[in-house]
Amino acid sequence: MKTLRNCIRLAAFAWLAIVAFASCNHKELCYDHSHMTEFEVKFDWSGCPDAEPRTMVLQLFYPDGNHYNRYEFGSVDGGIIRVHTGTYRMLFHNGDMDHVIEQGTRYEDYEVTTPERDLLATIGRASSEAPRPDGSEDQPVRFAPESVWGGSSETIEIRPSATERQSITLRPQEATDIYTVEIRNVENLEATSEIGAALTGFAECHRFSTGAPAGQPVTIPLDLTRVDNRTLTTSFATFGHCPEERLEHMLSIYTSNKVYYHFDVTNRIHEAEDPHNVQIVIDGLKLPLPGTGMDTSVSDWDSDIVENDINMN
C-alpha cells in the first residue's frame, strides 16, 4: 500500500514537471519572437540636387514624443534598419559634420546647433577685449554650421514583414541659408596682417519638428578670404536670423592692430530678394597704415582712426 502511494506521488510529480517545462518553453518561444522587423528607408534628393551630404541620420520617436532610437546611414540614399513593430514619428538630417551637433531627447525639441567659438579666433586676439555692437554684447558666439538638409515624417506604422519588406521615402529639404559677404575697394589691406569679421542676430539652432530656426540669437565669427589687395570675401551657412524677434544685424570688422568697424546690415538681411541666399556687399573701406593705429600692447581698441564713406550695395 505504501509502495502504491509512493508511485502515485512520483507520477504526480512527473506530470507537474512536464507542465512546468512546457510552460517555460512556451515563454522562451514567445521571447524569441520579439516583433523585430526589417524596414527600408530611402532618401529622395530630387528637391536638393546640389546637396553634398556625407551620411544621413534618422531619429525615431514614439507617438508621445519620447525617443526610440537613432540610426546613421553611410549611404545618402538610405538603407535597411531593424526596428520593433509599432507607430513612430521620424526626424532626419545629414550627419558627420565638423561643427554641427545634435541635441534634444524629444520629438518637439530635437535640434541641431553648433559649438562655441572665440569671437577673434581668426586673428589670434582675446575676445574679451573686442568691442561688440550695442545690444549684442550678451549674444553667445558660435561656429557657423555646415549646410544642413533634413525634414520630418509625422506618423508611420511599421508592421511585421511577412513577405515584402515595408519602406518609406523621405525627401530632405535645405535647413540652412547661405550668406556671402564681400568687401570691395579696401585701402591699405596689404599693410594689415590679420583681419576678421562677425555678424550678429542669427538663430542658435534648427528644430526639425517645426522646420524653423530656434533658440536664442547668436553672433557668428567669419573667416575672411583675401581675393586680392583690394577685396575680402566669405561665404557661410546659417540656421536663419531673428529666432525670437526682429533684431538689428551688425557686421563687425576687426584687425590685428586693434581697429574695428561696425556696419548696420539689417536691411540687407531683412529685405533680401532671396532669403535663403543673401549677399551683403560693402564698397569702400579705408584701413589705417602701420604706425597710425593704437599701440597693440594696450587693451583699448580704436574705431575712429579713419573716416570711412561706405556704400552698402
Put simply, the count of helices is 2
What is the count of β-strands? 19
**Element pattern in H and E:** HEEEEEEEEEEEEEEEEEHEE
CA-atom Rg in angstroms: 30 Å
Low-confidence stretches: 1-8, 15-33, 293-299, 304-309
Provide the residue-averaged pLDDT. Answer: 86
Helix share of residues? 10-25%
Structural class: mainly beta
Strand fraction: 35-45%
Basic shape: elongated
How far do the termini sit from each other?
114 Å
Note the main sheet: 6 strands, antiparallel
Written account of the structure:
The protein is mainly beta. It is about 10% helix and about 40% strand. The protein has helices spanning about 1-30, 265-270, and strands at about 35-45, 55-60, 65-75, 80-85, 85-95, 100-105, 110-115, 150-160, 165-170, 175, 175-185, 195-205, 210-220, 225-230, 230-240, 250-255, 260-265, 275-285, 310. The strands form 4 sheets. Strands 6, 7, 12, 13, 16 and 17 form a 6-stranded antiparallel β-sheet that branches. It is elongated, with a radius of gyration of 30 Å. The chain starts with a helix and ends with a strand. Mean pLDDT is about 85; it is low at about 1-10, about 15-35, about 295-300 and about 305-310.
